[in-house]
Amino acid sequence: MKNRSSKSLLLCVAAGVLAGIICKFFVIDILHISGSSMEPSIADGKAVIVCKLAYGLVKPFSDSLFFSWAQPKEGDVVIYLHDNRLVIKRCAAVASTPLDYSSDKGYTLIVNGHTYPLSSEQYNSFNNIAAVPEGTILAIGDNYASSIDSRSYGFIPVYNILGKALCK
Predict the structure, then answer these.
(1) pLDDT of residue 8
(2) Could you tell me if 105 and 137 are in contact, meaning their C-beta atoms sit under 8 angstroms apart?
(3) Which pLDDT belongs to residue 154?
(4) Average pLDDT in the chain
(5) Which of 87, 129, 135, 134 is nearest to 111 (CA)?
(6) Which residue in 2, 64, 106, 151 has the fewest CB atoms around it within 10 Å?
(7) Which of 142, 157, 144, 134 is nearest to 46 (CA)?
């Protein structure tokens, strides 16, 4: 009788561990923010809950999805892999969104009524692009001045987006 109860307990513990691993890799995760690029929305050192199923089924240990069933929307806080690091930024624009530029008072990018500062290098690499390319998003940190984002490294392919921040 004692042997049967310990096997049952061991089976329950193993099932719980397996369920936890599946949830961590495919469903939900908790990430700690390092840096000030999303302040004041998300402060340095804070934790966010990430829904990995928001846009599709994530391939573990990769920067892509097995299957995709939704697209990010403007305003979503998304997580993606860039230079082998997880990055969290806000989706400022989706595919086909028009992009406008100004060089009157410094270089700026204008998207849906929002103005984002650009360096001269960023302006020169962006100013000939009329709209966000198909299959990509423009991802920008809320703290524009200290954020290294799409303005520096380009548009983010939708298939590279690994999840959406739910709670901050």
Answers:
(1) 87
(2) no
(3) 95
(4) 90
(5) 129
(6) 2
(7) 142
Order of strands, sheet of 47-51, starting from the edge strand that comes earlier in the sequence: 28-32, 47-51, 161-167, 77-82, 85-94, 136-140, 156-157
Exposed e or buried b for every residue in 53-79, given b needs 16+ CB within 10 A?
A: ebbbebeeeebebeeeeeebeeebbbb
- 3 SS3 class: helix
Please give the residue that has the higher pLDDT: either 27 or 1. 27
CA trace torsion 49, 50, 54, 60 (10° rounding): -150
The answer to whether the beta carbons of residues 62 and 158 sit under 8 Å apart is no
Closest listed residue to residue 152, CA positions, set 160, 161, 163, 144: 144
Backbone phi, then psi, for 67, in 5-degree steps? -135, 150
pLDDT tens readout for residues 63-80: 677 888 899 999 999 999
In the three-class reduction of DSSP (H, G, I as helix; E, B as strand; rest coil), residue 15 is classed as helix
Q: How far is CA 85 from the centre of its chain?
A: 11
Q: Which two three-digit tokens encode residue 26?
A: 């495919």
Give residue-wise pLDDT tens across range 8-44: 889 999 999 999 888 888 889 999 999 999 999 999 9
- Measure Cα distances from 145 to 24, 83, 134, 148 in Å: 33, 21, 27, 9
